[in-house]
């Protein structure tokens, strides 16, 4: 076992060395000239054929030039060059690593990776800015997106559901900036989140009741706090018979239920034509007979249509919003409605917010990268011109005698006031009296 670790350390040290970069660059130039000789034939080769071709050419090149490397180092160079010619170069292993959540490139020399909520600098190296551009264009090519001086910003969804954002010079002053958000192939379930410690079993039960009782829920939190993963998990409580429409800027939600219509906004072309906003999609979705509407992120004028939908028969709708606390979430809803040109008074707006939103789930990312529900609050109405809330659960970690911090959620002992939950519990009681098998 220790021998394997030593080999891995030696391999990584060689990959990070200037010698590796130099030899890789020389052999890459040699391979490009050979590929030019092959012409169109090379484009029809499988990855296995390209791997074999690279290994033979690298072996020949090393022997002819008497490059001082051993067989293991030669294999590492062959693997890296295969990724360059048939894959995504230095990014390939990161893209295939299930633990990686985000890949951030700030100029060709600085690569950062987020794993389990913790952002760290990565040892991955690019030769220069052109090398990064070559890999980025390979990622963008199947998406039909262009990146050049006339179109210096690209935001696109990847085939696996992740997303990529690229901005190049002169807009990015210190060299191109690339942000890749990975997508989980298997979305986290509520049981997974309980196991990970995002919330406890008591909160999970209350959230399930709230969703099944068709309460309107907003998930509030900061950047990379886990809002979308939590929203996706909550949506798994929606009964399969209901028709759900999801609306997002970049489609990330992956609901397990069968009757889902997924809508995605469109930024429009370089001339600004063809823009389809979240607000446009939300308006159209109301004509599509939805039982529930889920908005990936509420951040613009669509807030008015969303509240109207929640107030007019589309109960059980959900969304996420950028805010640092439940109170801040309410302020942000007011602000967005004001920017959208809301015509009514401040009092009527607050009444509409209070009528639309039943629960606010505040999620946060702790300093150690862990995601935790910080607060679960119920919106109870309007008192003295202020939207009133009641906190039901609060995150209050405790420190054990050995100095270790442990998760703890404090229930404030208050039952939800929502008449939707009361009606839901009554319907369950009636069903159980008639021999129905339901769970609360």
Automatic annotation (TrEMBL):
Any GO MF annotation of the entry: ATP hydrolysis activity
Pfam families: T2SSE
Domain Bacterial type II secretion system protein E: 85-363
InterPro entries assigned: P-loop_NTPase, T2SS/T4SS_dom, T4SS_GSP_E_ATPase
Gene3D superfamilies, sorted: 3.30.450.380, P-loop containing nucleotide triphosphate hydrolases (3.40.50.300)
PANTHER family: TWITCHING MOTILITY PROTEIN PILT (PTHR30486), TYPE II_IV SECRETION SYSTEM ATPASE (PTHR30486:SF15)
Annotated family: Belongs to the GSP E family.
The name this protein goes by in its record: CpaF family protein
Organism: Variovorax gossypii
